[in-house]
Every structure is written in C-alpha cells, then in structure tokens.
C-alpha cells in the first residue's frame, strides 16, 4: 500500500513538472514580439494606401496566421517623417505602399528600413523589362504594379479621341480641359515630371510643363484629385495612376484609362522597418504580401497583382505592360527629386 502511495506521489510530481514545461513552451515572449512556438504576436503596419484596403489585408493575415495587425494610416511623407522621429525607438514593423518605389529609395539613405526579401521573391531579377522589381540590396520588394497614365471622361471623350502620348496632352483641343496633380505636393506628379525630364532634358521639360499647366483648369495637391475630377466631368482628361480610374469605373462613373506609349510603370513596395519591435512578425507579413491571399485582395481593389497566379481585375497585367515601361534612372531620380520639386514652385506659374 505504501509502495502504491509513493508511486502515485511521484507520478503527480512528474505530471506537474511536465505541465509547467509545456506552459513555458507555449508562452509568448511579450512586448509584441513573436513567441517561440510560432505565435506572430502584434504587428504594426504603416501604410498610406486606402485604409479599407490595408484593413482587408490585416484581417486576412490575422485569419490565416493569427496574431494582431494594427494599421496606422497617413500620407507617405507623414509616415516617413514619423519613422524618422521614431528612429531611436521604432514603433512600426512593416511599411507598405507609397505610390511606387521613389520614397523607399530615399528611405534607404535615411536608415529607417532594413533588408529582407521574402523567399518567393529571392529569384527575381532586380530589373525586369525596364521595371525595378526589388531593391538591389533587399531593402524593399514590389507587391503590385502602378501605371502612370491618363483617365478620361467617357461621356466627354471617345476612346479614339483620348490622348495616347504625353505630347498629345498639349493638343489645343484640350485647353482648359486637363487636370494633373501638383508636383510640389504630390509624389505622383513628381514622378511624371522626373520621367519626362530624364527622356527629354530639363530645359525641354520645363517648357513642356509650363505649356501643360497653361492647358489645365486645375492642378490639385492630391495625386487622386485629377482622376476624381475626370470622373465627375470637371475635366475631360486627367493624369493619375491606373487603379484610381478603375475604382471610379467600378463605382459606375463614366471614366476609363489610357496607358501612354512610354510611361513610368513602378512596383509599389513593402519593406521591413529597421529595429521594429516585432521583426519576425514583420517578416511573416512581408511573406504574406506576396501570397495568393494578399495578392487577390490587391487585385480586388483594382491594383495589378505581381503574383502571376492571381488574375488582374483590370485590362492591365504585368505581361501586357512591358512594352510601355520607360527606363527610369533611379540614381538620377534620387539626386534630383527634392530639387525639381522645389524648382516647380518658382518656375511654373
């Protein structure tokens, strides 16, 4: 009887030990970091993209991987300034989106992002068909494609009449009927200006944009403002990104999009914030952004998915855009980005 009691006592002690060990294995490391058992923890996402889009991505990630994704929305410049201010104690783990690669290129020198490329993108070429797909040192990776082009109001302009090249915008028939965003305030418009100047030189570029300004009836600060103006009939033709037009078109508004013969086509990236509180969770979110789940969400919002397994919801795709892509000298862009924006204020009236 005593032997049995002793056996039961030992068994009880061993079971308590094993339970405590298991509990220790399952515990999270706390402070928002990923736990040792694969728990992704809490992830903070900074994004200037449409808030509902970013929230859709966050919800899908939580559904598939667990954890919690906190979305912080603000304009690209605001987010970059915030990351600079938080440099000694970063609060974000991932930064997604910014109207293309230009702000991410600039962020490398600001030392606010760090290198990470998801496994699914490791074999990508840095530049494919004139389009930079990822940073050469891994500081960002493209998640989707953006095309700079022309939206036009289909009640006011036929498909045949719509401009097909950037020089077509100077046709006298568009006088007082064009809108484009202000390069002093909009990254979308800065891209337009820099691209034209790279191809044609600064002297010809300034002459072109003075004439384009004279053609316009409004130059809004917002990158999406001109497309909205075209959808409302306030402009016949507007400059903007493709997805802006297709969102309006899907809402039943009379607008369509033209891809110019030679135009900037950029990936819109995601990147890992340097010294973020949850780097492992951030990497999982970066991986997720290239998954079919996330790419389908981007496609449903009329962005051009970079994953070939996901169909675009617009007439545009990675394959049918290659011939339209203009080669961008990223080093020249980085060197002249701020100067050109500042000179716009004094040169264009």
UniProtKB/TrEMBL annotation:
Pfam families named among the record's database cross-references = SBP_bac_6
Q: Which SUPFAM superfamilies match?
A: Periplasmic binding protein-like II
* Signal peptide per UniProt: 1-23
Q: Which UniProt keywords apply?
A: Signal
Q: Which domain of life is it from?
A: Bacteria
Q: Does the keyword Transcription regulation apply?
A: no
Return the protein name.
Extracellular solute-binding protein
């Amino acid at each position: 009887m005593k032997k049995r009691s002793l056996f039961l006592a030992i068994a009880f002690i061993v079971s308590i030990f094993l339970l405590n060990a298991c509990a220790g294995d399952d515990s999270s490391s706390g402070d928002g970091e990923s736990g040792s058992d694969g728990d992704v923890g809490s992830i903070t996402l900074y994004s200037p993209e449409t808030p509902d889009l970013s929230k859709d991505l966050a919800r899908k990630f939580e559904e598939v991987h667990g954890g919690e994704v906190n979305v912080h929305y603000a304009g690209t410049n605001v987010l970059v300034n915030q990351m600079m201010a938080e440099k000694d104690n970063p609060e974000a783990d991932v930064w997604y989106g910014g109207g293309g690669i230009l702000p991410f290129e600039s962020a490398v020198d600001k030392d606010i992002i760090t290198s990470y490329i998801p496994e699914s993108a490791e074999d990508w070429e840095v530049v494919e068909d004139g389009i930079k797909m990822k940073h050469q040192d891994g500081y960002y990776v493209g998640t989707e494609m953006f095309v700079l082009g022309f939206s036009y109001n289909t009640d006011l302009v036929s498909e045949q009449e719509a401009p097909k090249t950037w020089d077509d915008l100077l046709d006298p028939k568009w006088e007082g009927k064009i809108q484009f965003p202000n390069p002093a305030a909009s990254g979308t418009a800065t891209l337009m200006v820099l691209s034209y100047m790279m191809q044609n030189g600064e002297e010809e570029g300034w002459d072109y944009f003075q004439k384009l300004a004279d053609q316009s009836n409004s130059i809004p600060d917002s990158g999406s403002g001109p497309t909205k103006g075209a959808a409302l009939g306030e402009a016949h033709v507007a400059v903007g990104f493709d997805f802006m037009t297709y969102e309006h078109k899907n809402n039943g508004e009379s607008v369509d999009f033209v891809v110019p013969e030679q135009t900037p086509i950029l990936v819109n990236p995601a990147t890992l914030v340097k010294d973020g509180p949850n780097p492992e969770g951030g990497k999982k979110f970066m991986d997720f952004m290239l998954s079919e789940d996330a790419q389908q969400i981007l496609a449903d919002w009329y962005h051009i998915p970079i994953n070939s397994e996901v169909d675009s919801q617009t007439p545009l795709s990675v394959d049918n855009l290659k011939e339209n892509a203009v080669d961008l000298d990223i080093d020249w862009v980085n060197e002249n980005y701020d100067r050109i924006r500042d000179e716009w204020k004094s040169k264009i009236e």
